[in-house]
Amino acid sequence: MTGLGWVWWGWNVFGDLRTMLQYEFIRNAFAAGTVIAVLGGVVSYLVVLRRSSFASHAIGHIGFSGAAGAVLFSVNPLYGLLLFTTVSGGGMALLGERASHRDVEIGTVLAFTLGLGLLFLSFYRGYATEAYSILFGEIVGISSAQVVFTWETAIPVLAVLAFVYRPLLFASLDPEVAEAKGMPTLALGVVFMLALAVAISVAVTIIGVLLIFALTVTPAAIAIRLAKRPLHAILISVAVAVLATWAGIFIAFYEVEPVSFFIVTIIFATYLVVRLVPSGSRLASRLRSSTTE
Amino acid sequence: MLSDVAWADHLEVRYGNHPVWSDANFRIRRGEFVAIIGPNGAGKTTLFRVLLGLIRPSGGRVEVLGGPPRRGNPRIGYVPQSHEVDKDTTVEAEQLVRLGFSGNRWVPNVTPRQFRAEREAAETALRSVGATELARKALGEMSGGELQRIFLAEALAGQPEILLLDEPLSSLDLRRATEFVALVHSLVRSREVATLLVSHDINPLIHHLDKVVYLANGRVATGPPREVLTSERLTELYGAPVEVLRDSRGNLVIVGGEDSHQDEAA
């Protein structure tokens, strides 16, 4: 939830890192954060390609109710998250076409489930801390068992995505031709939404429901401005997500502010740079051409 | 017949109780360039969907590449109507063409040989449509004419024996449309790929065609352009007086029928 602020900044980064890694909760944070960021980076490319960012946003918030419900029944919130996100994600995919174009339906369901989440919270006495960590993430509080669970969830999803990678890319980029070529575009849509649901559920542990965009949309939004090939874009997207997560955990060791704040800020700053730099150079060339005219 | 890549015999298609067209008879031979012509709503795209195995005909017989139409036949290349890509996409053209070659394969590329085969198929397809210089250009930044050539390359990358192009000319001005038809014609000849091209305007195509399938009024007329595009045949097809006029360059104006307004444009 909040950073640690135990240690003063020093020049010896590697020495500090060694000190840091002596703490189990820091090791856990790095271990879980890494695999979550890898999955987020991969999935975010497909989110951007399929224009499903609203669906991604909605699934995260719907997951909030699942987590709140799980807390109420003293179950690990991650299970509640997984249940609500996979059911809602699968449902959106089965609505057909591209779920991202179903904004009204998604929004309607979203409002209802958020109300449900509120109800769950009102039943629960100690809700403030729990709700806070679901909304904003709490990577430094993650247990070893949760780390193992995160890996066990994320790795199979990555394996499935690797297997369906090309047909899914085809169905995302050119759905009509892919369908005519006999690709099961609806089933591929379901696979994608389920992968997104899992990615969101595990990412909530790092950055929380409200900041989910930063790991499931923005890394790829950065990457597609730097690479024109899907594989390169995915690698950049993963690199952005992983480095931001590592840096966020690292900085939070020194500062009292929350880890999620640092992760989100690093990703946003990177986004600003790639957005502004090329358009700046384009503006410059336009100015040049207008003066020569 | 052995050289037929597709044929239909008294073929009929209905949507619910409403017949789209009936009694369609045609034979498409290997390496033939065929135009599917007719007014809007005549069922031109429907014919494609039958050949692609996406619609089941309600009567008659049809065969494609020696068997009944089946969905996902890799020997058919297809460019859908009003085909577009996301304007924001930064994916480069060659990547889409590669998917035309291997997008329907589940197992990911592993060996260098697989990557090379995919790259070479895409490069060959791009070269054959004269779009080598567009390989690295983002799809979202392309003009209508450039995109049509990339879609054509995507369809060709799978080495099809039949090419179905649905209204590829609708997004092009007359000059680009004429260039595109000349390109398709040269591909039909060099690759011996039978090509069916849907258009509501015959004129950009008129000098290149081997055959016309003319749909109107729920009926279908098939044959060489010279035989089909006559006042007598079209009057019979529409069941109303239609006159086919020819200008000095061989362009046609079809007066009467439901589509007289469309063919005036060119």
Q: Explain this structure to me?
A:
Chain A is mostly helical and 293 residues long. Chain A has one domain (13-285): ABC transporter involved in vitamin B12 uptake, BtuC (Orthogonal Bundle). Helices cover 78% and strands 0% of the residues of chain A. In chain A, α4 (77-94) packs antiparallel against α9 (185-207) and α12 (230-252) packs across α13 (259-292). The longest helix of chain A has 34 residues, at 259-292. Chain A is globular. Chain B is 31% helix and 27% strand. Chain B has a domain at 87-159. Mean pLDDT of chain B is 86; it is low at 259-266. By secondary structure, chain B is of the alpha/beta class. In chain B, α2 crosses α3 (112-128). In chain B, the strands form 3 sheets. Chain B has a 6-stranded mixed β-sheet, with helices on both faces. In chain B, strands 2-1-4 form a 3-stranded antiparallel β-sheet, covered by helices on one side. In chain B, strands 10-11 form a two-stranded antiparallel sheet. The chains are: A mainly alpha (293), B alpha/beta (266). At the A-B interface, α7 and α8 of A face β5 and α2 of B.
Write a brief structural summary.
The complex is a heterodimer of chains A (293) and B (266). Chain A is mainly alpha-helical.
Pick out its properties.
heterodimer; A: 293 residues; mainly alpha; ABC transporter involved in vitamin B12 uptake, BtuC; 13 helices; 78% helix; B: 266 residues; alpha/beta; six-stranded mixed sheet; three-stranded antiparallel sheet; 11 strands; globular; disordered C terminus
